Amino acid sequence: AGWKQHRQAVLECLDDLLQELTADTPHTHTGAGGGGSVCERFKVAKEEQQILSVLQDTHSGPRRLALLLDDNFYYHSMRYQVFQLARRRSAGFCQLYLRCPLEVCLHRNRVRGQPVSDDVITEMANRMEPPNSEKNPWEKNSVTVDTTHTVTHTHIQELLQVISSAVENPLSPVQDDSEQREADRQRCACSVLHQVDQVCRRLVSQAMLTAR
Is Disulfide bond there in the keyword field (predicted)? Predict the structure, then answer.
């Protein structure tokens, strides 16, 4: 539950930032549900990197901002939340999946300064759901890099291409058609009731004729 709240708080901070870049009076989250400290750290990082001032500097020409979310995102559902956020704010979206065999991951983890347990790495590998554009069309703008050995210049070019594609093709917000869907549902329900009523009337008529 703690990690879910943390992820949600990060998404809220990102939403605030994207809204701040496009709206005159952005709505800011209060950090309810344990996200206050996350939002505070996010605010400090934003000010230290001078994101808004750099983007608002008209002397250097138009600027574009790339937000890199460096996380495991092992479930499709986790990544889909980010996709929904990008779509809601008309931003581009792409994914970089770093593929690596479990044995290599375990070795690299053991030789680093602060390794985690092998069980954690193994469990993460078992849960990992790689991008699948056939099953999830929203993952079509993804690139997979095999990091078993070294990252090559070709890998970097592929990554730059997918980022460029995301920048040049921002997502379009889904129109809220909830009212129309509710109206259609009611019409469908009325139609079904009407059909049931007609059937009942016929059955009653037939029963009365039989009784005579």
Answer: no
Distance in angstroms (rounded) separating the CA atoms of residues 6 and 71: 12
Please say which residue of 65, 80, 114 terminates a domain. Answer: 65
In whole angstroms, what is the distance from residue 161 CA to residue 167 CA? 10
Q: Which helix (H) or strand (E) holds 97?
A: strand 95-99
Domain shared by 2 and 58, yes or no: yes
Within 10 angstroms of residue 85's Cβ, the number of other Cβ atoms is: 17
Domain that residue 54 falls in: 1-65
Give tens-digit pLDDT for 152-196. Answer: 999 999 999 999 999 999 999 986 555 456 555 666 666 667 677
Rg of the chain over Cα atoms, rounded to whole angstroms, equals: 26
Domain identity same for 84 and 137: yes
Dump pLDDT digits (tens) for 65-115.
888 999 999 999 999 999 999 999 999 999 999 999 999 999 999 999 999
Let me know whether 161 and 192 are in one domain: no
